[in-house]
């Protein structure tokens, strides 16, 4: 059911299909629905399943038809007895001995790759872990939810998966070795180390019924190192900072009442201890930020309603008050109210006035200062005799930011056109968003 939740959050609920044991297709009510949704039934006997899979998979090959095909390579639920049997088979056949998952059945997976390779762009390796114990089928039916559900997702472009069946099977086996290690670490630590996930290009997020989920997406052509800063002693999201390669996403749950900010750091170099520096947005020379990013830096700011979706509004904005380094956008999903998008799509660095430019060693403009940071004058900083909305007006510099990014804060009192509200939503934060 949590894959359904994930598909719903990604707007793909109508496109998800499963490969299921044929016995489940015979369940009252549910089985009828599975047939309508074109789920693929299997008997777990290859001579029976192969022609059925070929026939049904061939109907999913239209590139224009979105598809999420959920495959469970283990073929059955995990139990201790099944694990012992799987380990015995592994020992007898020189295969990896796994502790937390069963050996995958590779033939169905490789057939899916063979038939769908021309119409899909990636495989998502999903591992689900529960805080205490895995809920039963009846628990799911009657709404008995676990306290925490951790989902670990790794995106693998199809071109990175071997073409031959033997090599594809070996790739799948190695993926299950990684799954086993993930679950071993989870059992020991009750959480997963972000450094470990970064090494494996894995994305971690927790789905919680009362949480607001921030999904961060790197659409830049280069790696960024998001920083997070929580206010008022609120929970620290994402350990304060992490790396995101181009195309990566990560979802971070935040409790009711959370407030804080996100920003992108660029040009970072960190050692194994997480010590280093960034060209823009640096937060004290550490990977896991404990303070804000050094201006100039583009910011996303949030204050989440304190009592959940029904008790108030979330407030959010994209701010260029501290300058600009990377384009940002925020889009709400699943909420009610105005729920407008906020952001800055334009490349401000490309048109930054010379007196505001920050350049790297190669002479490239990597950030654009605010007039306050550049000149430190009350009329630019809205301080002293200019400390109220009546006495602090837009300047030519703040107007330059506003013209480039109408949906972002350009100076301290730019509230009316820049603060957005929404109730009960999750939020997509995109670095380097497109004009679409």
From TrEMBL:
One of its GO terms (molecular function) is acyltransferase activity. Residues 1-102 form the Phospholipid/glycerol acyltransferase domain. Pfam families: Acyltransf_C, Acyltransferase, Thaumatin. SUPFAM superfamilies: Glycerol-3-phosphate (1)-acyltransferase, Osmotin, thaumatin-like protein. Keywords: Disulfide bond, Signal. InterPro entries: Acyltransf_C, Osmotin/thaumatin-like_sf, Plipid/glycerol_acylTrfase, Thaumatin, Thaumatin_CS. Belongs to the thaumatin family. PANTHER family: OS03G0233200 PROTEIN. This is Pathogenesis-related thaumatin-like protein 3.5. It comes from Sesamum angolense. The lineage of its organism: Eukaryota, Viridiplantae, Streptophyta, Embryophyta, Tracheophyta.
């Amino acid at each position: 059911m949590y894959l359904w939740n994930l598909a719903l959050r990604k707007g793909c609920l109508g496109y998800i299909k499963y490969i299921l044991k044929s016995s489940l297709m015979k369940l009252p009510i549910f089985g009828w629905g599975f047939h309508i949704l074109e789920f693929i039934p299997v008997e777990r006997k290859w001579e029976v399943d192969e022609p059925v899979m070929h026939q049904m998979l061939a109907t999913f090959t239209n590139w224009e038809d979105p598809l999420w095909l959920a495959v469970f390579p283990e073929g059955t639920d995990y139990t201790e007895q099944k694990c012992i049997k799987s380990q015995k088979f592994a020992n007898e056949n020189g295969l990896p001995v796994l502790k937390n998952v069963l050996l995958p059945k590779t033939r169905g997976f490789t057939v899916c790759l063979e038939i769908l390779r021309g119409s899909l762009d990636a495989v998502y390796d999903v591992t689900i872990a529960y805080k205490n114990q895995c809920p039963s089928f009846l628990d799911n039916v009657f709404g008995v939810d676990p306290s925490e559900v951790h989902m670990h997702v790794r995106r693998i472009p199809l071109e990175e998966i071997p073409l031959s069946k033997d090599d594809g099977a070996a790739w799948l086996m190695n993926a299950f070795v990684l799954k086993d290690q993930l679950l071993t670490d989870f059992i020991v630590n009750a959480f997963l180390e972000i450094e470990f996930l970064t090494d494996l290009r894995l994305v971690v997020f927790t789905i919680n019924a009362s949480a607001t989920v921030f999904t961060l997406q790197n659409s830049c052509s280069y790696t960024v190192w998001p920083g997070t800063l929580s206010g008022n002693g609120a929970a620290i999201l994402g350990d304060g900072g992490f790396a995101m390669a181009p195309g990566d996403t990560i979802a971070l749950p935040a409790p009711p009442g959370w407030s804080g900010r996100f920003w992108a750091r660029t040009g970072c170099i960190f050692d194994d201890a997480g010590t280093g520096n960034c060209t823009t947005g640096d937060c004290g020379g550490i990977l896991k930020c404990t303070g804000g990013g050094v201006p100039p830096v583009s910011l996303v700011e949030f204050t989440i309603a304190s009592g959940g979706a029904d008790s108030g509004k979330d407030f959010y904005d994209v701010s260029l008050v501290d300058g600009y380094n990377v384009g940002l956008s925020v889009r709400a999903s699943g909420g009610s109210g105005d729920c407008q998008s906020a952001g800055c799509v334009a490349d401000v660095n490309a048109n930054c006035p010379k007196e505001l430019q920050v350049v790297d060693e190669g002479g490239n403009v990597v950030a654009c200062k605010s007039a306050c940071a550049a000149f430190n004058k009350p009329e630019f900083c809205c301080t002293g005799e200019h400390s109220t909305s009546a006495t602090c007006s837009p300047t030519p510099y703040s107007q330059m930011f506003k013209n480039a990014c109408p949906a972002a804060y350009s100076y301290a009192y730019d509230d009316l056109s820049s603060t957005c509200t929404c109730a009960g939503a999750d939020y997509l934060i995109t670095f380097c968003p497109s004009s679409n």
